[in-house]
Specification:
This protein is of the alpha/beta class. It folds into 3 domains: about 5-120, PAS domain (Beta-Lactamase, 2-Layer Sandwich), CATH 3.30.450; about 150-325, P-loop containing nucleotide triphosphate hydrolases (Rossmann fold, 3-Layer(aba) Sandwich); about 330-475, Helicase, Ruva Protein, domain 3, CATH 1.10.8. The protein contains 21 helices and 14 strands. It has helices spanning about 5-15, 35-40, 45-50, 55-60, 65-75, 125-135, 160-170, 190-195, 215-225, 240-245, 260-275, 300-305, 310-315, 335-345, 355-365, 370-385, 395-400, 420-430, 435-455, 455-465, 465-475, and strands spanning about 20-25, 30-35, 80-85, 95-105, 110-120, 180, 205-210, 250-255, 275, 285, 290-295, 320, 355, 390. It has a 5-stranded antiparallel sheet with strand order 2-1-5-4-3. A 5-stranded parallel sheet has the order 7-8-11-6-12. A two-stranded antiparallel ribbon has the order 9-10. Helix 6 crosses helix 14. The termini are far apart. The relative contact order is 0.08.
């Protein structure tokens, strides 16, 4: 038991054992308390800091922004990055930290105190790796890594993703149709799995098909199945379609915006009657399925352009969920990157960590390919970085979402007169086979085309190849 007389020293002892820096200010910005982690980070003694006012650091240009001023002025919690350059810092060099600054209000609504938590960016890796050693990950749902495949784990730190997951969990128990919208690479199938695994149908595997992956005639056969001899090349025994395979389970139709008009009416009837009819059959069959669909374009716009049936749109859009692009939920970037880093460190038996400047570059980059692009970037970084410290000054050159794809902008115009690009030297040091490098080039080139043209058909036309080849490569490279 701690006596009332000793409570003050007890609380101070507890705060001193928190690994994040903590300080408390009065209503004028004077330091009232600093814990041991903050002292160590700043490199000043407790006596020195308690003699300071927080504005002294800004006056001497030792911090780029006084976050406390914003809290005093706007009377709200402020979470910001702050650049710190203190002459006698233990780090000896400028560094960037995440500051979570909270107001404590007095009886008249004035800011009476500020309590702030400081996290240097280069320590984020350390905490995450420590958590991974114990088999846990910070996610909204609280699930361990074993609940999902590595690329299906949901990491949600942003308010937008937490809100979406709350909605997804709330609707999971109902059989109503769900339409998930969002740019390519945002994780629509992951959300569909999240809903399915929390539904009464979770005992059955969710059935998945990409509507852009097959030509129209084959897509119809895949969805509805066919009787023996229904068409040239049909199996002699016939084939069960995906609707039948989803009996008692969930059917997920990805890129439903690519569904041909001729099939939209048939899908609508299946939804409304819960019956299907195989190709070549005159018999209807009852099927108990729940439909979740996803689109990477505005379906209402497709309705207005007469490319998508209005009645089907409203039948699908009963429970809409919108996945924001990664650039609009930047709080998720670093937790996702650290999750993928832990996964690829384990896969390739590495112990890589991100340098502070790499973390900041990741936050500054827009990630047009969203979570899929971030995942591929982390994998490339783990494989291609020469040391265990991943230090990348140009995220775009590795992410390869634009015209400057990996390595191509570094090729010397005259090999005899220019030095070998560092990237190739690293690959040689790793003894990377040519076949592996060519596969990566193919993957990056196809990924760029898919991101640019938004569909496998558009990518195939641009690359002068077949749509079926593009889909095979998508599956192979998990694009």
């Amino acid at each position: 038991m701690v006596s009332a007389a000793n409570l003050g020293s007890f609380y101070e002892l507890m705060l001193d054992n928190i690994p994040d820096g903590i300080y408390i200010l009065d209503d004028k910005g004077n330091y009232l308390y600093v814990n041991s982690a903050y002292i160590h980070t700043i490199g000043m003694s407790k006596a020195e800091l308690l003699a300071y006012n927080v504005h002294d650091f800004q006056t001497s240009s030792q911090i780029d922004v006084c976050i406390s001023d914003i809290v005093y002025r706007e009377k709200r919690r402020v979470v910001m990055f702050q650049d710190v350059e203190i002459g006698n810092t233990a780090r000896k060099t400028p560094f960037r930290q995440l500051v979570i600054s909270n107001p404590v209000f007095g009886p008249n609504g004035e800011v009476q105190n500020i309590i702030a938590i400081c996290k240097p960016l280069d320590t984020i890796n350390d905490f995450y790796n420590e958590a991974m050693e114990h088999g846990t990950i910070s996610t909204y749902s609280g699930h361990r890594l074993t609940d999902f495949r590595p690329d299906e784990t949901i990491v949600a730190e942003s308010g937008a993703m937490k809100h979406l997951l709350r909605m997804a969990e709330g609707i999971a128990g109902f059989d109503t149709s769900v339409l998930i919208s969002g740019e390519s690479g945002t994780g629509k199938e992951v959300i569909a799995q999240y809903i399915h695994r929390r539904s009464p149908r979770a005992g059955h595997e969710m059935i998945v098909i990409n509507c852009a992956s097959l030509p129209e005639n084959l897509l119809e056969a895949e969805l509805f199945g066919y009787e023996k001899g229904a068409f040239t090349g049909a199996s002699n025994t016939g084939k069960k379609g995906l609707f039948e395979a989803a009996d008692g389970s969930t059917l997920f139709l990805d890129e439903i915006n690519s569904l041909p008009l001729s099939l939209q009416g048939k899908l609508l009837r299946a939804l409304e009657t819960k019956t299907i009819q195989r190709i070549g059959s005159t018999v209807s069959k009852k099927v108990d399925f729940r439909l979740i669909s996803a689109t990477n374009e505005n379906l209402l716009g497709a309705v207005e352009e007469k490319r998508f049936r209005a009645d089907l749109f409203y039948r699908l859009n009963v429970l809409p969920l919108e996945l924001l692009p990664l650039r609009n939920r930047k709080e998720d970037i670093i937790p996702l990157a650290l999750h993928f880093l832990a996964h690829y460190n384990k896969k390739y038996i590495k112990s890589k960590t991100f340098a502070e400047n790499t973390i900041q570059k990741m936050l500054d980059y827009d990630w047009p390919g969203n979570v899929r692009e971030l995942k591929n970037f982390v994998e490339r970084s783990v494989v291609m970085s020469a040391s265990d410290f991943i230090e990348i000054s140009n995220i775009q050159s590795i992410a390869a979402s634009h015209d400057k794809r990996v390595g191509f902008d570094s090729l010397p115009a005259t090999p005899q007169s220019q030095p070998t690009p560092p990237m190739y030297q690293q690959l040689w040091n790793k003894e990377l086979p040519l076949s592996d490098y060519l596969e990566r080039c193919e993957r990056d080139y196809i990924q760029y085309a898919l991101l640019t043209y938004k569909s496998s058909y558009g990518a195939a036309r641009a690359l002068g190849t077949s749509q079926s080849l593009i889909m095979r490569r998508k599956r192979k490279y998990l694009l």
